Amino acid sequence: MRFVGIDPATATGIVAIGEDGKLIGWLETKAKGETSTTRINDNLNNVFRFLVPNDVVCIEGFAMEAQHDTNKVSSGHNWAARLATDRKVGGFEVATPNQLKKFVAVEEWEQDPDRPGKKRRLEGEEVKTRVQVAVSDHWGDAPPTFNIADAYVLARISEALWRVRGGKAIEDYPIYQQEVIHNILHPEVAKENKKEAKARKKKREAAKKAQATLF
Q: What's the pTM value of the predicted model, to 2 decimals?
């Protein structure tokens, strides 16, 4: 059995971890073809060839915050990976881009040195570089590309979900990883918590507006 992470895109990162927790191997495949359709189909075939029937797989979720055209293309490759995995393995887990980063304690926002009290959102490559470094810090492996780094984290998420389902205590993982594991295993709770957080945010914003009208 292998724990496999897949970061699907035009260049797809795939990583396999053994049941002993050691890295088996990684690979980045670049979809070939003259059209988006042929490239997506090539990606499907690449993923299908890598997988074996008893793999435990986690795929990165759709990049809903990506630009419109980018989102359409990445969604096609994401569906290709899902279809290939479903055909070869029969099922898979999904971790959102935010859950992937949270699992290695990488934040997208940091204090802006030029604006005290304000935060700035990190550029895409800044975040991806931090994920690469975090993988090395957590597990000692050094992914050579951004896509492989993301796939590596997904493989570790797949492993953690399998072990917790098998009886390992979730408390054995760091707090930030516990949250990711819990939210994937219990999506209904995560959805309710998100709904409550959104309601609290709206309430705070309404209170600020009401206070502003008093002055």
A: 0.85
